[in-house]
Amino acid sequence: MNQHGHPPVWAAFDFDGTLTRRDTLLPFLRYALGTPRLAFDLLLESPWLLAYLSGNLSNTHTKQRLLRRCLGGLSQDELHELGEKFAQRHIPSTLRPAMQQRLQQHQSLGHTTVLVTASLTVYTEPWAKQAGFTHVIGSEPELDKNGNFTGNLQNGNCFGAEKVVRLKRILPAHAILHAYGNSRGDAEMLAMAQFPHLLDKTNAFGNTLPYLS
Question: In the beta sheet, which residues pair with residue 179?
């Protein structure tokens, strides 16, 4: 309960396709590598990408293969610098204005806002801090003993049921939860919320957005 005797209100937002208009991993890799190098790496990974698209390879395995190919061996400082610059220079142009307004509405009402995403924290975290999020939950790069990126994700990919596992670690027991998502990767998080808000295929919420008070 908060100081007024009411249960706390939390709002959990997915990132790719919900707060943004599109996926951000490939744009981030293109920013980090340049288009020619990324195209070459995607060509090398094409058998595994096709296996993923046909349902024969998991999201997590495919993602980590691609990350190892493209970013494996980069130092923590190099990753953070790329993430900070990408967040500042590229993320703002991909955001949905209506969702930015929705986030700001929750914040103006004193709600706790948390970003829950499968995207890499190296760029979602700096953006989210600037946007006023209270917490950031995402896919964190795993570093080796020398501080270099292994290409794997620490504690796995923050996707699907894993979003719920991590959110529950910080969500107060009696909190009222709004959750915002757009894909199957958000299904479990939406299911746990008292107020689930799912973007449809036209990227509109329709009648699922009651006025907040």
Answer: 12, 196
Cβ neighbours of 132 (radius 10 Å): 11
* Residue 85 covered by a domain: yes
Mean pLDDT check: name the lowest of 35-39, 64-68, 148-152, 205-209. Answer: 205-209
Q: Report the alpha-carbon distance of residue 189 to residue 182 in Å, rounded.
A: 11
pTM of the model as a whole:
0.90
- Pairwise CA distance, residues 172 & 185, whole Å: 23
Domain of residue 117: give its range: 9-198
Residue 103, token pair as written in the block:
């986030």
Residues 177 and 12: beta-carbon distance below 8 Å: yes
CATH number at residue 13: 3.40.50.1000
- Under a CB-based contact definition with an 8 Å cutoff, are residues 101 and 13 in contact? no
Cα separation of 153 and 155, whole Å? 6
Q: To which H or E segment does residue 10 belong? A: strand 9-13
- Count of structural domains, the chain: 1
For residue 109, tell me if it sits in a domain: yes
